[in-house]
Amino acid sequence: MDETTYTDEEVGKHVVTADGDRVGTVTAVRHGTPYIDPDPDAFDRIKAAMGWEDVNDDAYPLQEGEVDEITNEEIRLRQF
User: Can you list the positions of beta strands (E) in the chain?
Assistant: First the structure.
C-alpha cells in the first residue's frame, strides 16, 4: 500500500488481521498515526508481531507498513 494520510475519519474503525479476525479499534489519530485500543482476547496473540511488547499505553500506534487495506469500516493488516 502506498503511504496513507490517516485522519480522524479512521477513528472508530475496526482493525482486523489478514484473516479477518478483529484485533482492536482505532481510538485516535495523532500526527497522522492511528492508535488502536486492542481487544483483550487478541492482544496477547498480536503484541509481539506488532512490536507492542514494550508499550505501556492504553492505545498502541499502527505503523504504515502493517496496513494492507483501508475501507470505510475497517483497517486490514498485512499477514504477519
Answer: 14-16, 22-30, 33-38, 60-61, 67-70, 74-77
Q: Residue 49: enclosing H or E segment and its boundaries?
A: helix 40-50
Residue-wise pLDDT for 49-73, tens only, equals 666 665 555 788 888 788 999 999 9
CATH for 37: 2.30.30
* CA–CA dist 58, 73 (Å, integer): 22
Rounded Cα distance, 12 and 8, in Å: 9
pTM of the entire predicted model: 0.78
- Which residues constitute the domain of residue 15? 8-77
Residue whose cell numbers read 505503523: 63
Cα angle value 55/61/63 (rounded, 5°): 120
